[in-house]
Design a protein that fits this description.
alpha/beta, six-stranded mixed beta sheet, globular, DUF3800 domain-containing protein
Amino acid sequence: MPLHAFADESIRTSANVYVLAALLIDEADMTSVRVEARLLGKGSQPRFHWRDQVPADRRKAAAFVLGLRLNHLVVVGAGIDPRRQERARRKCLHELLTQLENQGVEHAWLESRDPVSDGRDIAAVRAFRAAHLISEIRVEHEHAVNEPLLWVADLVAGAVGAAEAGEPQYKLIIADGVTEHRIEVD
């Protein structure tokens, strides 16, 4: 069964890190996990977003991720210059896509930010291919409001980012399913 990835970011300028997290999921499991992930949204919120949650809801969301028993790949780019976040993203994206491809991921979806930023990502992916740093993995953007699997990636990125900023309690809940790679970005 094809393996896919859904990735989102968390930037913690207070901790000088850029976090890019990906949910790894078999194609056969995508529909059922989407249904479960939709339960994370509440009320009038069109989607789950880590930064909008109170601590109790963050703990529940982390427990939800633990219950999925899926794997997550996280790249922590350390030493970011807040004025050079795109450079940090590019370096983290390279590491993430390389690791995903090494694990057999065929297709990766990144959360869409805006047309200009998405274009920068696609240009970076083309450059990685031209330099033979990645080869087969397909990369696309999707809006988080349309894709609950991106909410899971957001949650993992948020938990890891919180740990980097001194709040490890959420990351501790999901730690067994997370493989983390740390790189220097400046």
